[in-house]
Amino acid sequence: MRKNIKVTAITTIVPKLKLMRRPVFLHLDQITNILIIILLVPLLLIYFLPITSQLAIAQTTSVVNMEEYKTPIFGFIIKYPSTWIIDEFEKSIKNDDVVGIDNIVLFCPNPSTIKQATANQINTNNNNTTNTNTICHNSEKSFDVYVHNLPTGMTLEEFTNSKISSYKLELTDFKIIESNPSVTIDENPAYKVIYTYTDNNDNNNNKKIQVMEVWTVINDDIDRDDLKDHVGKAYSLRYETIPIEFPIYLNAANNTISSFEFKNIEDDDKND
User: Of 23, 125, 157, 170, whose CB is crowded by the most CB atoms within 10 A?
Assistant: First the structure.
């Protein structure tokens, strides 16, 4: 009985060994899929690795080496990463009460998009005199500060509704991703919104843009000395870029927004 059992065991194992030696053939569509994957992997690495590298560098350096930008004409201070470049518009704008919007200053967070005339034009001296000849060449990568002169008595809620309504009318494919009515700018109630739209400018070829914007309104019921000169105005802080690069300088943009401080406007500038 034991010998019969052994023979039976051997005869059952041998066919299995023969089956294991059989060559494996792939169908043509399987081979095609494998080749596509082999070709795609290097392309994906080439595309995404620079972006992830920028993200890692930006996230680790976004809280250090901050410079201070101060405008006594419009009465605020804001800090920005020292590697960013400034386009300063405030010196050509009069701070008055005419209803409208003014772009006070623009920062470029991506050095590769900057067009520099000369190397020494990007320096900022101790008196915060910034260079106005340095151009933020790529306009969809920027951090802007806007000042709005408002109709008398407009509230933050009214301004928010008006601004979002105008975006829905003016911006192609406008879509809100996130909104937060519980934020502040320098301890003043503010509204934050993250949205996307399609830029229809000829140079951008219908490029998708993602924006984070935070704004606040200064009402006449504010009991703060540093805000008295700002009554009847709204301040909007806006960071924008293409969606895939939006996270790269997001920390830096948030730190810049958090650093914003209102100051009294100098009398000499107000009377010009």
Answer: 157
Length of the chain in residues, anyone?
272
Residues 213 and 237: beta-carbon distance below 8 Å:
yes
Kindly state which CATH superfamily the domain 66-270 is placed in. Mog1/PsbP, alpha/beta/alpha sandwich (3.40.1000.10)
Looking at the chain, the domain(s) classified CATH 3.40.1000.10 span 66-270
Is the model's pLDDT at 221 over the cut of 80? Answer: no
Q: Tell whether the model's pLDDT for residue 235 goes beyond 60.
A: yes
Among residues of the chain, what percentage have pLDDT more than 90?
A: 37
pLDDT of 125 higher than 50: no
Q: Give the model's pLDDT for residue 120.
A: 37
Gap between the Cα atoms of 75 and 105, Å rounded: 13
Which tokens in the block code for residue 23?
């060559």
